Amino acid sequence: MGVKKHTPEEYVKYIAEKIKTTKIPVSVELGQSEVTLADLLNLEVGDIILLNTGVDSEVKVYIAGKLKLYGKPGIFGGKKAVKITRIANNEEG
Predict the structure, then answer these.
(1) What residues have CB less than 8 Å from 56, skipping those under 6 apart?
(2) I want to staple 67 with a disulfide (CB 3.0 to 4.6 A). Which of 3, 52, 91, 93 is the partner?
(3) What pTM value is reported for the model?
């Protein structure tokens, strides 16, 4: 009983399929804020933290922890979503 050897083409196809199904973390930053430690310690359910962005502002989209895209938040299919508006340049990420 021998081990089957794969051709380079079969190996490339196998790797390509694995890459297509690999999951990569994507996160979206809605904005930033600074609060005092006292305010942080006193936060309660229902409190509001003001962000440095407006409602219609672009949000930053990070792929594997690196800024790669910008987008606009919205709803798609009843779920929260981000519509990509532009690609971040190398200096931004």
Answers:
(1) 72
(2) 93
(3) 0.74
